[in-house]
Design brief:
With 529 residues, the chain is an alpha+beta fold. Strand 12 and strand 13 form a beta hairpin. The protein has three domains: 55 residues; 216 residues, no CATH class; 173 residues, no CATH class. The strands form two sheets. The protein has a 24-stranded mixed β-sheet that branches. The protein is built from ten helices and 26 strands.
Length: 529
């Protein structure tokens, strides 16, 4: 109510009674009270902000102090040891803000990883993961990593005083952290300038050197994407050449490794592509892929490198564990040609044709398998349409040969060898004459049974047996029969020797393939003991 405009002089009455002054004083008091409350609220907000900043500064100072302490170096040493299943230590850390460098990480182990050394590590520690209880390792770069792995028998699967890598829980008594500090490490990215790995296996030593690697975390926990480039790979198999890695992509998932792509070069123009996986639970691995563009001169020994022309391609499947390897595939020769073989020249001369001097291969392929020091070739086929065909299997065990084949030739090829195409070779499929062929001996001294059978057949055809007496007489024309006995024997022996020369040429193909050195005229005969 407005006392100033009231028709009755209530204002004066109110003033005289003291009510108006009380009313005015109440309004001023309320104003002063409101302004005082707002001021305290603002001051409280300012104090709270300042306290937060101060707390953050104190917390950062405490974190920074811990990072720069030797306790953090020991903590990281334990984490790296757990990840590699070894026992190792970083050298002193050199800090610049949140960036850190260290010279080396040296470790040894009783498990598969025997030694591990990391040189020239530079990284940054991220603090954004503190709320999640992890130290973030960002932009890590290592100049060189070198390790020795032993997959042979008698390995203690438990590492030296380290926990399982997938848990990465520190159990070392020497590592003591405050409860509010993270106890886990998360690697955001890591580049390795040079990776060198030596692996001791039951088959021998394998090496990887000069490899560049990039590691990034995957979608889940304990998953990583790994990209590899360059580098040289040497496997413990004499028949596998040095592999020049182009690039490879792997996925690591809780100790399981998946090789999604692998591209490399071998010999001069050969290319290798592969994919596969490693199962940590079963300790088994598998690979599959193909090799293309390999020249015959890359694979064959010096003798056959000059005589076997063509391109070799093979697919392959490899399965195994740290103790065994089982590899198999199908090998194919494309644009194959056999040339400059003495046996081909001999066949051409005796068959009165030049077709054998340069022998184009219309078909050349075999299945192969390598397992337990044994190399087996099955369903092997070498063929020149209408001229010659070889079919069969051969196994090489500790350099011992065991082969069973069928050899087919065009009719008339060995007509100049008495009995060859009637007693040794017999008509069969594809319009060829066929005979079984047995290969034995060793890689250094292969043996075949065809030569002796042809010699025996030629010898039998040289003689007749007189039924009454059982004596052998030489089968020749009348002019030869009239010669003195000494001349008959001499000329008969010469014919047998000429036939044997051709036969031994056939055997020379087998010898030459395995690199057996033939005795030349210049080589002196060894004296009899």
């Amino acid at each position: 109510m407005n006392l100033d405009v009231c028709p009755i002089n209530f204002r004066g009455l109110a003033i005289s009674r003291g009510f108006a002054s009380v009313f005015a004083m109440s309004r001023r008091a309320r104003k002063r009270g409101n302004s005082g409350g707002a001021g305290w609220l603002g001051k409280a907000v300012i104090i709270l902000i300042a306290a937060s900043i101060l707390s953050a500064a104190v917390f950062y100072a405490a974190v920074r102090s811990y990072l720069h302490s030797d306790a953090f170096r020991v903590f990281m040493s334990d984490k790296a040891s757990a990840l590699g299943k070894v026992d190792g230590t970083f050298t002193s850390f050199r800090w610049e803000g949140l960036s850190v460098e260290t010279s080396t990480f040296d470790a040894t182990g009783r498990g598969a990883v025997k030694t591990l050394r990391l040189d020239g590590l530079h990284t940054e520690i991220g603090l954004s993961g503190l709320r999640r209880g992890v130290w973030e390792i960002r932009q890590a770069r290592a100049r060189r990593i070198e390790m020795l792995i032993d997959t042979r028998g008698g390995i203690d699967p438990a590492p030296v005083a380290v926990a399982e890598a997938k848990d990465i829980k520190v159990s070392h008594a020497r590592t003591v952290t405050k409860p509010w500090l993270p106890t886990e490490v998360e690697v955001k990215e890591m580049d390795v300038g040079e990776l060198k790995i030596s692996a001791l296996t039951d088959q021998g030593q394998a090496t990887i050197r000069g490899l560049r690697a990039n590691v990034e975390p995957g979608a889940g926990k304990h998953t990583y994407r790994i990209d590899l480039a360059d580098g040289l790979v040497q496997l413990p198999f004499t028949f596998v050449p040095e592999i020049r890695l182009d690039k490879a992509h792997l996925n690591y998932n809780d100790e399981n490794v998946f090789l999604s792509s692998f591209k490399a070069s071998v010999w001069e123009n050969g290319q290798v592509e592969a994919s596969g996986e490693w199962n940590a639970d079963t300790k088994q691995y598998s690979l599959e892929g193909n090799v293309t563009g390999v020249k015959c001169e890359d694979v064959f020994n010096e003798n056959w490198a000059k005589r076997f022309i063509g391109d070799l391609n093979t697919d392959f499947t490899v399965t195994g564990s740290t103790r065994t390897i089982d590899a198999k595939g199908k090998l194919t020769l494309q644009n194959g040609t056999l040339t400059a073989l003495p046996v081909l020249d001999a066949l051409a001369a005796y068959a009165d044709t030049r077709r054998f001097r340069v022998l184009p291969l219309s078909e050349a392929h075999t299945n192969w398998r390598s397992y337990n020091n044994q190399l087996a070739f099955t369903n092997l086929v070498l063929a020149s349409e209408g001229l010659v065909r070889l079919e069969g299997d051969i196994t090489i065990t500790d350099r011992q040969l065991d082969g069973r084949f069928r050899l087919g030739l065009a009719p008339g090829t060995l007509a100049s060898i008495p009995g060859a195409e009637t007693d040794v070779f017999f008509p069969g499929e594809r319009g060829l004459v066929w005979t079984p062929l047995r290969i034995t001996g060793t890689l250094d001294d292969p043996k075949e049974d065809l030569t002796d059978r042809l010699k025996a057949a030629a010898g039998l055809r040289m003689f007749d047996v007189i039924p009454e007496t059982g004596e052998k007489i030489i089968k020749f024309s009348r002019s030869i029969i009239n010669d003195p006995p000494s001349q008959l024997i001499e000329r008969g022996t010469k014919i047998i020797e000429e036939s044997a020369d051709i036969v031994e040429g056939v055997g020379g193909v087998i010898d030459g393939f395995f690199g057996k050195k033939k005795k030349t005229e210049e080589e002196p005969n060894k004296p009899n003991p």
